[in-house]
Amino acid sequence: MSNCPEIFLYEGEQEKDIEKLTLEELSAIHPVWKTDCEKFAPWKSDSHGVWYAKAQEGAPVIVSAQCNSSLDLVKSFAEQGRLPEWGAVLAVSQRSGRGQLRRHWVSPVGNIYAAWYLPRFAPEWDAVLPLVLGVLCAETFKEYGIPVQVKWPNDLLVYGKKIGGILIEERGEKVYAGIGINLVSAPEDAEIRESWSPKALSLQKYDGVPGPLSVWLQLVNRAECWYKSTFCSPEVRNFLEYASQNMAYMEQEVLVHDSNGEYRATVLGLAEDGGLILLRSGKRHVLYTGSISPA
């Protein structure tokens, strides 16, 4: 794999449980993928039968047939030196996709199941990295007229319903992000684990939302620009003030769900170490683990 902005269809030669993906198969798997295949034409096939296309900008992207997890696959590629920083895997579907607390992530064809090999940010950014990526997604979808908000710590909402989520994992010195977005379908209400969790929503009803590859490359381009201009510095506070504008439930009363049970509090803002500042019974405290829902 090269450092140039190219899109590869994974040949699956090392993982026995992943089939080789051809251009014809990808085009037929879902209309959104067909649209992307046509958009990034012409495609070429090399001497090993690997299909690839050029992208105008962004880092290399490997499109995989159904796999266990795009995060596991991107880790394998990165550790083998086959994928550079900013490179990503987009799986058409997953058998064992995972979200926060390793909960199963339902993965039907047509949505975004991306795994990203990230560069190291300045150390001050480590704790707020899920929020950084959440705001990045929100800003990207706002260009399509979709009012995405970030729900602390790592969910993406539209009008209070979940359209995606973010998971950060580290292995040694390498940092990876899993990003799932419901482009064309979403879990049924009965599939939602906790009664207080937000219901799911897909973006299918919004006109003009492109396919998985198109969305992903736009997101990567925005991330690289932000990285060069902002995330190499230790100035986290200014970003958090900006991020607050994209946060759900800001200055609202919420139900907090953590190891102490369930209680009411008001969201005041974001702490520089990634915590959520709350006001409870007249006292301020910072939430680091748990979740929130509308009161």
Task: Put the structure in a nutshell.
This protein folds into 2 domains: 241 residues, 2-Layer Sandwich (BirA Bifunctional Protein, domain 2); 42 residues, SH3 type barrels, CATH 2.30.30. 23% of the residues lie in helices and 28% in strands.
Explain what you see.
The chain is an alpha+beta fold. It has two domains: 6-246, BirA Bifunctional Protein, domain 2, CATH 3.30.930.10; 253-294, Roll (SH3 type barrels), CATH 2.30.30. 23% of the residues lie in helices and 28% in strands. It is built from six helices and 15 strands. The strands form two sheets. Strands 2-3-1-4-5-6-10-9-8-7 form a ten-stranded mixed β-sheet, sandwiched between helices. Helix 1 (23-29) crosses helix 2 (31-39). The longest helix has 20 residues, at 212-231. The termini are far apart. The mean pLDDT is 88.
Task: Provide keyphrases for this structure.
single chain; 295 residues; alpha+beta; BirA Bifunctional Protein, domain 2; SH3 type barrels; 5-stranded antiparallel beta sheet; 6 helices; globular
- Strand tally is 15
Instruction: Report helical residue fraction.
Output: 10-25%
Provide the succession of SSEs. EHHEEEHEEHEEEEHHEEEEE
Number of helices: 6
Largest sheet: 10 strands, mixed
Structural category: alpha+beta
Q: What proportion of the residues form beta strands (DSSP E)?
A: 25-35%
InterPro entries: aa-tRNA-synth_II/BPL/LPL, Biotin_CoA_COase_ligase, BPL_LPL_catalytic
GO molecular function: biotin--[biotin carboxyl-carrier protein] ligase activity
Protein name: BirA family transcriptional regulator, biotin operon repressor / biotin-[acetyl-CoA-carboxylase] ligase
Keywords: Ligase
